[in-house]
Design goal:
Blueprint lengths: L1 H7 L6 H30 L2 H27 L14 H29 L8 H28 L2 H30 L4 H28 L5 H12 L6 E9 L5 E10 L4 H19 L1 E10 L4 H16 L3 E9 L6 E7 L6 H15 L5 E7 L3
Helix pairs in contact: 2-3, 2-5, 3-4, 3-6, 3-7, 4-6, 4-7, 5-6, 6-7
């Protein structure tokens, strides 16, 4: 591997270097395996082996797409694209998934035709040995590619690795078909081709759905969100944090926002100093551009303490309310503010609003109450 890194002039510690080197190695291996299988498949008139060869050729093309996608994703931000081009990697994964699906459908069509018009097979133990050898290589290289993809956070590289690993399972089916023909003379080649294409179509569909989910916007990564919440809540001067949103613009590019509770007696200068230092820490340590909103609270005030206790009791008895924050009494008007965080199973937010307002009016009949109901985004 060190030789390949040197030949490609890539840094083995960099994300781009790992993706580029793994992709080039995949291209070379898949082209060699595809060439051997296509020759054997054509000479032996085996639909299953030809299908495998086509699949390996598609794998080589997906590695090329991964390499190109990574290069494009690494471009610097522009005026039209201020968040950079990181999401190109997701588009690459999308193209790869479509390519896998098309390959699988083409193979399925050929295999179904072969069921009604079976070919005269001419297989040998040599062809069986070559298929077995390629299956072992593809399995271990697929596992290696998946690990490298997860290591550097590349969904495209993980997709290529999954496809490569699945190829080895496909080869087992082809080996079984070849063995049955050589030992018993049974020709189930077309049915093996149908089974093979089914596995490939399933793999393509899984990559497609996963990539579309990334493009539509998944909840921010739970591990990252938990780490950020812990860091923010443990910062001196910050009483609590809530409403975090994380937006992904590529594997190494995040922007986010979060509301923090701070004592209403603090000056603007004190608040700025705390949040600015925290913002820089999060940027350097986690590569997240974080924007802060501020809730003013008076946690030591007797009335405020009583309200927090009342709201806490309401939360405990309601299964769909996960937590609360931003409890504040406006000094001049005595208006009460509160935010409730609910789960996604709650369908009737209006009913919850009425229940909460009625509950709070029993304690504070003369106060206006401003309630915000929301869900967690991470």
């Amino acid at each position: 591997m060190k030789l390949i890194y040197r030949l490609l002039k890539q840094n083995p510690e960099s994300r781009e270097g790992v993706i580029a080197t793994t992709s080039v190695l995949g291209i070379v291996l898949n082209l060699l395996i595809a060439g051997m299988k296509m020759v054997i498949g054509i000479l032996s008139a085996s639909v299953a082996i030809v299908s495998e060869g086509m699949n390996n050729l598609a794998d080589a093309m997906t590695s090329v797409l991964t390499l190109v996608g990574t290069k494009l994703a690494g471009r610097h931000p522009t005026e039209k694209h201020p968040f950079g081009f990181g999401r190109i990697e997701y588009l690459t994964s999308l193209v790869i998934s479509v390519l896998i699906l098309v390959t699988g459908i083409e193979m399925l069509t050929s295999a179904i035709k072969a069921v009604f018009s079976p070919n005269e097979l001419s297989l040998s133990y040599l062809s069986m040995a070559i298929i077995a050898g390629s299956a072992i290589i593809k399995f271990f290289f697929g596992i290696y590619t998946i690990r490298q993809g997860k290591k550097v956070g590349s969904s495209a590289l993980v997709a290529v690795g999954i496809e490569g690993r699945n190829d080895s399972f496909v080869s087992v089916v082809t080996l079984l078909s070849t063995a049955l023909f050589l030992v018993f003379g049974w020709n189930i080649d077309a049915y093996a081709g149908i089974f093979t294409s089914g596995i490939i179509i399933k793999a393509g569909a899984e990559v497609l759905f996963s990539t579309v989910s990334e493009l539509l916007g998944r909840p921010g990564e739970k591990e990252l969100a938990t780490t950020l919440y812990n860091k923010i809540r443990s910062t001196d001067g910050i009483l609590n944090a809530a409403d975090m949103m994380l937006h992904n613009y590529g594997p190494d590019s995040w922007s986010g926002s979060v509301n923090v509770e701070m004592d209403h007696a603090m000056s603007v200068g004190e608040i700025y100093s705390i949040l600015h230092k925290l913002q820089l820490r999060i940027m350097h340590e986690h590569k997240v551009t974080m924007v802060f909103g501020v809730y003013a609270v008076d946690a030591d005030h007797e009335a405020s303490f009583a309200i927090r206790k009342e709201v806490g009791a309401f939360v405990q008895k309601n299964e769909h309310v996960k937590s609360f924050h931003a409890v504040y009494i406006e000094p001049e008007t005595e208006k009460i503010y509160c935010d409730l965080v609910v789960d996604y199973k709650l369908k009737d937010w209006n009913a919850l609003r009425k229940e909460f307002l009625s509950y709070m009016k029993d304690y504070h009949p003369n106060n206006e109450i401003e309630l915000v109901i929301e869900t967690e985004f991470v």
